[in-house]
Amino acid sequence: MKQNLYSRRNFLKTATLGASGILLPLAGRLTWAAGESRFTRALDIPPLLEGEMDKDGVLNFDLLLRYGSRDFLEERQTPTMGINGDYLGPVIRLRTNDRVRMNVRNTLAEASTLHWHGVHLPARMDGGPHQVIAAGDSWHPEFQVRQPASTLWYHSHMLHETGRQVYSGLAGLIYVEDEHADSLDLPSEYGVDDIPLVLQDRAFNADGSFFYDSSPGPGMRGMMGDVMLINGVAFPQLRVRHRRTRFRILNGSNARIYNLEFSDRRRFLQIASDGGLLRRRVPLRRLRLAPGERAEIVVVFDWDDDVYLRDVSVPGNGMGAGGLGDIMHFDGSGVAGALVGPPPVKLAENIPSWKPRDAARRRRFVLGGGRRPMGPRALTINGKYMDMNRIDETVRVGDIEAWEVINRSPMAHPFHVHDVQFRVHARNGVTPPPSERSLKDTVLVQPGESVLLMMQFRDYSDPDSPYMYHCHILEHEDAGMMGQFVVTS
What we know:
By secondary structure, this protein is mainly β. It has 3 domains: 2-183, Immunoglobulin-like (Sandwich); 194-331, Immunoglobulin-like (Sandwich); 356-488, Immunoglobulin-like (Sandwich). It is globular.
């Protein structure tokens, strides 16, 4: 079954055009012709999973890793992986202080993991490459939610297989809610005015299967495609009302960096980033998201809107491929609605204000490349490629630390740290933009750039169970751009 998920080479088959005539065969691959005819399918809203409380007060969530199939493209079925479904997983809704247990069962014919990206939790519950779930086995991590309201996510983190498994569908969103966020009266009706958007670009073979290539050439750039999936729907459409709508956006792509704007260049408000609410709302016309990053925005729609969300990224400067253009359609269609007031100007409370002078330790992480001894080229951190048997850094519990991330490669790298949310203190010595001044767990580092991160390791010491830090371009992670640290008392 595993071998059928992806073709490692192009299939030389003739593709049959779909009813709309927009799928074109190209050297065994499918490419999507430009034009508005592609926005024909409604946006799918993932199921909301809120768990079952047991007699001990623990909220249980049942998650099943499974194979599936979906017709992303007309008249073609794509073999997939999914969580509780054919592709992607449900939105898991938690509240601060919840005690939760994730009952994960792997029905795949291969090993996998589930990493709780952005969640502060014990290392042995983290779901990284050390917490492997063998084919046919189950895993039951249990932890308490100890962080403010935020939009997080979960995904496969299998050593050397993360890129392929996430590409096939092993990912989903996590909502954390709390009383403070509730008090702000933000749009919060799930699927109506509080809508998740999981952005993933994909490439397809002529037979409809995913085209995935992690060989040294494409693997160095990271896997990118020309078909935009949002919540698992290719180039979707959403019917909107005259109201303020909150979108929780995840860049769930393997490698593509997005620059998002609306086709009429309308203004919107960013209210949250990776680790939760911003200190103050930030007006924007364009939003950049690297793989692994999240953002929450609030947009006003009107009854007669006919507008697109588009990706206007340009090639070069380490950003990878050019933009995909229009990726989603919003259709007002004369639907009435009630326009409530805007989000408050002030949002988050008690965001830590760590300063470099507070740091017990300053560390440097240099992103680059090299060649493994007697092996293929690898991407490295501090000149080392990932070794499961080597602990790269040891951190003392309770310490505030400053991590300087320096990119000496010709490519941009989103740097992700497990366990903690950090503050971006400076980019090349300059204060970051307002949208990066709250808590984050993933930060884009451009070629030649130095980014200073401040963080604190408040608890969860365990000298035997490491956390990861790595590039979140998944093919870079799989190629060795990852390290390990432990937190000790």
